[in-house]
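Backbone-to-sequence.
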C-alpha cells in the first residue's frame, strides 16, 4: 500500500474509535506529536517532584510526611510509565532526558513557581493534581494505546493526590486565623498559574487542530480549563476561601463560571525558560543526573556481564 492509502486506512481506524498500537502503521506527524507530548508530560512528572520534595523534611507531622513522600514517589512512577510509552514510538529515554537538561524540551509551566509554605502542598494537590485529572481523564481515552493506558493508571493515583491536597487545605482553612491566612495566600499564588496549565486559548494553540483530528486530544484547552474552574469554585466556597479573580461570576445562561483574563505574557515567559524558578529546576535535575552517574555505570556493567555469561 502506498502512503496515501495507508493514511486513509489509519484515519478511518481513528474515526472508528480504534486504538493505535506501537507496531501499527502511523503517519510521521502522529508519531512526532506523540513523542513531543508524552515526553513533555514525562518531564513534567519528574520536574514536578521538586516543588513538593522541598517540603518532605518539613511536613508538620509523621502522617503528613508519609502521605507527601508517597505522593512524590508516585510522580516518579508516572514519569517512568510515560518515558516507557514514549519509547514505544522509537525514541530513546536518554535522548529525551538530554532534551530536558539542555532546555530544549518543555515541561509544565506550573513547576516553575516556588513552594513558600506548607499550604502550597495543599494547593498543589488540590489545584495542580486536580487540573491534571481533568486533562488526563481525557488523555486516558486517546487514540494511542500505550499513552491511554499510562494515563488511566496515572489518573487513579492523581485522585488520591488531589484528595490529600484538599484535605490539607480544609484543615488549614478551618484552623487558626494564621493557618487560614496561610491557605488563602497559597490559593492566591497558585490559582492563575494552575489555570494556565491547560495551555493557551484555542486560537493560540497551534497543535490542537492536528491533535484533535487524530484523537490524541479529545477536547480543547479552553473547554478543559472551564471544566476545572466549574468543578473547583464550589470546593473553594465549601472551605470558605476566595479564588483571586474579581471577575469570577456564575453565568446562568451558559451554566459556567465566567473568569477574568489570564496573564499570557507571564505564561509565555515561563515556558520560554524565564519563569521565577526555571533555573533552579533545571539545576536540580542536572545535579541529580550527575549524582546518579555511578549507578548508571554500575547497572550497565552488570547488564554487560550478564550478557557475556549468557
Ligand atoms: N506548560 O499548541 P498547544 C502533574 C506549550 S504533571 C508548558 O496548546 P498542546 C503533576 C506546548 O507544549 C501533568 N508548555 O500545545 C506532576 C506548545 O509548545 P511546543 C502535566 C505548555 O500540546 C507532579 C505551546 O505551548 N500534564 O500532573 O496542544 C506533581 C502551544 O500550546 C503548556 C501534561 O503534560 C504548559 N502548561 O497542549 C503534581 C499533560 N501549555 O511543544 C502534578 C499532557 C502549552 O509546540 N499534555 N504549552 O513547542 C497536554 O495535555 C498538552 O500538551 C497541553 C498543551 C494541554 C499541556
Amino acid at each position: 500500500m502506498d502512503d496515501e492509502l495507508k493514511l486513509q486506512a489509519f484515519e478511518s481506524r481513528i474515526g472508528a474509535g480504534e486504538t493505535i498500537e506501537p507496531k501499527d502503521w502511523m503517519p510521521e506527524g502522529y508519531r512526532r506529536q506523540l513523542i513531543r507530548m508524552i515526553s513533555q508530560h514525562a518531564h513534567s512528572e519528574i520536574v514536578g517532584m521538586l516543588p513538593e520534595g522541598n517540603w518532605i523534611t518539613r511536613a508538620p507531622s509523621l502522617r503528613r510526611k508519609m502521605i507527601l513522600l508517597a505522593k512524590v514517589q508516585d510522580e516518579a512512577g508516572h514519569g517512568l510509565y510515560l518515558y516507557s510509552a514514549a519509547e514505544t514510538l522509537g525514541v530513546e529515554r536518554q535522548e529525551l532526558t538530554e532534551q530536558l537538561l539542555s532546555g530544549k524540551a518543555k515541561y509544565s509551566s506550573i513547576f516553575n513557581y516556588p513552594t513558600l509554605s506548607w499550604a502550597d502542598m495543599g494547593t498543589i494537590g488540590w489545584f495542580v493534581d486536580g487540573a491534571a485529572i481533568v486533562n488526563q481523564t481525557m488523555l486516558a481515552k486517546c487514540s494511542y494505546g500505550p499513552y491511554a493506558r499510562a494515563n488511566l493508571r496515572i489518573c487513579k493515583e492523581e485522585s488520591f493526590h488531589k484528595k490529600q491536597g484538599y484535605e490539607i487545605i480544609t484543615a488549614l482553612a478551618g484552623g487558626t486565623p494564621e493557618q487560614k491566612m496561610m491557605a488563602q495566600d497559597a490559593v492566591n499564588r497558585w490559582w492563575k498559574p494552575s489555570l494556565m496549565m491547560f495551555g493557551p486559548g484555542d486560537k493560540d494553540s497551534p497543535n490542537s487542530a492536528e491533535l484533535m483530528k487524530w484523537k490524541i486530544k479529545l477536547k480543547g484547552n479552553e473547554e478543559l480549563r472551564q471544566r476545572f474552574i466549574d468543578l473547583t469554585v464550589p470546593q473553594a466556597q465549601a472551605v470558605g476561601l476566595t479564588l483571586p479573580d474579581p471577575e469570577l461570576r456564575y453565568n446562568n445562561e451558559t451554566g459556567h463560571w465566567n473568569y477574568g483574563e489570564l496573564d499570557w505574557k507571564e505564561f509565555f515567559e515561563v515556558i520560554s525558560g524565564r519563569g521565577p524558578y526555571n533555573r533552579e529546576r533545571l539545576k536540580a535535575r542536572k545535579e541529580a543526573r550527575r549524582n546518579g552517574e555511578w549507578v548508571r555505570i554500575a547497572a550497565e556493567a552488570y547488564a554487560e556481564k550478564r550478557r557475556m555469561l549468557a
